[in-house]
């Protein structure tokens, strides 16, 4: 009966009927994409939280100690990379004086219109940090949510605290999402980002317990305010966690515990982001390249099965392009004389990301545009500065020449925190577990960072991959060539899938095709590279794929219930492995291609 129903029902009908109680969660370093599987698109919410503090914080952003000082060596490498990029783009070198009219000028429109980007230029308002005293009996999430109606810069969604009677107001205990980024610097709040560079943001400044509590608070706020799912009804809902490849086993387990124990979902399943992405675009074989805000990850998929040894992670993304944009403009003295600090003023990073999305593109020749830049200073009106931005095609080229990006420097969490040999995303029937205990004290003894989820297997190299200085083209080439088979290599080089917000950058697709083709060694019998066009917004492809996987998972063999997780957890030797399906079923392919 069920199979007959799936054969006759329309895909939209199946998603609507079977996805109404499935919550798809795709967490990222900068944003979280979350929504019901029956929705066309998810909510895309900044993954941050600001908490009220009675003590005056040393800084409004509590984060791992990020490096804001560029060393001499880094500065020289960055300038060298700029000149290499300038030569390729046929624009003047970094310190070259440009004679008038010596180069063709490609000017953007005065209103900053970009045909590839829809931008909202709305008046800015600071977040109202007060709430009415009558809401004090409510929970922190419920009380704060009565004023939270944003995730955009719509001025109608904020109010001026001066208009209310101060005697009837008190500070909101916590503020989540984009509103947290728009809190005035003088207010007694501390901003936290529980995920950074593809890992839980654990350090001596940010404990594991606080990271997990902040995640719980953010997700709980979204479930109540955006999805309208109260806590006492969540046992009737199931959660689909679409996890990036950068997360480690221990981190994924903590996420599962968060969803099943703290948020009280009835059941949950974990799917790998790369695998979910091919479902989201109706593919079966592809090299999935996810260029996110802070991390770029890639993995090869063959006939619906992941190839774990091909997984690679690069520590840069869209936010690095925004930082490079600021550096480029300051060097060319096109940036207004204002205090722009993306480390201590989150609203500045928000502005730079908008400028990047609107104006940055990859094309030859000089790319300039007249843009409006804002200055956000406390207790003064927002400043507006019209300026001519230049070299707008240089920052996105940092994806191929990452020395343009000066990396964040922050202390990693203790290595023992990530020490976990049970992989919940992989079938372990062919792994000899007896070998693991012998390696427990010697596995990666000197590695300071977290391991990608596949690299803790003894069948793979015992040394972590270090590709921090590898550009995007080289990483994609190495990822595909590591499959070791010419037939699948040819297929994958013609099936590259770009996802993530940066994939929307104009000119990126031909740049990837050209540079990947040049990065292939001449002894390889491969002469064609193609990036497949995404069927939907590349930012939401993994989320959409997770929704499809959840709806089509009829047997739910990989799902785990709340009771089972609380009482049994996950242990070696269990017959149930909470993993991705390696093979796409015929029904799934029929649905995806219909």
From TrEMBL:
Gene3D superfamilies: 3.30.420.40, Actin, Chain A, domain 4. It comes from the Eukaryota. It comes from Lupinus luteus. Signal peptide: none annotated. It holds the Pfam family Actin. Residues 144-165 are annotated as: Disordered. InterPro entries: Actin, ATPase_NBD. SMART domains: ACTIN. Transmembrane segments: none annotated. Belongs to the actin family. ARP8 subfamily. This is Actin-related protein 9. CDD domains: ASKHA_NBD_Arp8-like (cd10206).
């Amino acid at each position: 009966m069920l199979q007959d129903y799936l054969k006759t029902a329309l895909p939209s009908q199946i998603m609507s009927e079977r996805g109404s109680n499935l919550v798809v969660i795709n967490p990222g370093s900068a944003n979280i994409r979350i929504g019901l599987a029956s929705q066309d698109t998810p909510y895309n919410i900044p993954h941050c939280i600001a908490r009220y503090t009675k003590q005056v914080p040393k800084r409004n952003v509590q984060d791992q100690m990020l490096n804001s000082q560029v060393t001499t060596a880094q500065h020289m490498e960055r300038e060298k990379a700029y000149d290499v990029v300038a030569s390729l783009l046929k624009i003047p070198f970094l310190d070259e004086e440009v004679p008038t009219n010596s180069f063709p000028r490609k000017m953007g429109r005065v209103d900053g219109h970009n045909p590839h980007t829809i931008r909202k230029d709305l008046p800015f308002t600071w977040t109202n940090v007060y709430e009415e005293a009558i809401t004090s009996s409510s929970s922190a999430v419920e009380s704060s949510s009565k004023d939270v109606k944003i995730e955009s810069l719509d001025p109608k969604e904020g109010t001026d605290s001066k208009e209310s009677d101060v005697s009837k107001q008190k500070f909101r205990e916590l503020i989540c999402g984009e509103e947290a980024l728009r809190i005035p610097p003088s207010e007694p709040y501390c901003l936290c980002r529980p995920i950074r560079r593809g890992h839980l943001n654990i350090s001596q400044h940010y404990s594991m317990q606080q990271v997990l509590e902040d995640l719980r608070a953010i997700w709980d706020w979204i479930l109540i305010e955006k999805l309208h799912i109260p806590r006492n009804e969540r046992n009737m809902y199931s959660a689909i966690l679409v996890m990036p490849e950068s997360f480690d086993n221990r981190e994924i387990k903590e996420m599962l515990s968060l969803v099943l124990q703290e948020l009280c979902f009835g059941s949950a399943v974990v799917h790998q982001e790369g695998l979910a992405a091919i479902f989201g675009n109706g593919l079966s074989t592809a090299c999935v390249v996810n260029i996110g805000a802070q991390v770029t990850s890639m993995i090869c998929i063959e006939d619906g099965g992941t190839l774990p040894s091909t997984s690679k992670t690069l520590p840069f993304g869209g936010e690095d392009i925004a930082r490079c944009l600021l550096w480029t403009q300051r060097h060319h003295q096109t940036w207004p004389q204002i205090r722009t600090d993306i480390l201590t003023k989150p609203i500045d990073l928000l502005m730079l990301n908008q400028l990047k999305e609107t104006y940055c593109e990859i094309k030859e020749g000089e790319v300039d545009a007249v843009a409006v830049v804002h200055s956000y200073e406390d207790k003064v009106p927002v400043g507006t500065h019209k300026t001519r931005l230049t070299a707008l095609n240089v920052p996105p080229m940092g994806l191929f020449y990452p020395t343009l990006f000066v990396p964040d420097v922050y202390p990693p969490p203790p290595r023992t925190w990530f020490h976990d040999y049970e992989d919940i995303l992989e079938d372990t029937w062919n792994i000899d577990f007896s070998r693991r205990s012998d390696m427990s004290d010697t596995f990666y003894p000197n590695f300071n960072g977290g391991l990608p989820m596949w690299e803790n297997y003894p069948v793979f190299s015992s040394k972590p991959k270090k590709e921090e200085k590898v550009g995007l083209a080289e990483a994609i080439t190495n990822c595909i060539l590591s499959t070791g088979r010419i037939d699948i290599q040819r297929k994958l080089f013609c099936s590259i899938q770009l996802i993530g917000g940066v994939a929307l950058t104009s000119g990126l697709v031909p740049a990837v095709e050209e540079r990947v083709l040049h990065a292939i060694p001449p002894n390889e019998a491969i002469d064609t590279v193609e990036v497949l066009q995404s069927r939907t917004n590349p930012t939401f492809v993994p989320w959409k794929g997770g929704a499809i996987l959840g709806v089509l998972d009829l047997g739910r063999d990989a799902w785990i219930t709340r009771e089972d997780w609380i009482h049994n957890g996950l242990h070696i030797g269990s017959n149930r492995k909470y993993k991705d399906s390696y093979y796409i079923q015929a029904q799934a392919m029929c649905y995806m291609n219909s």
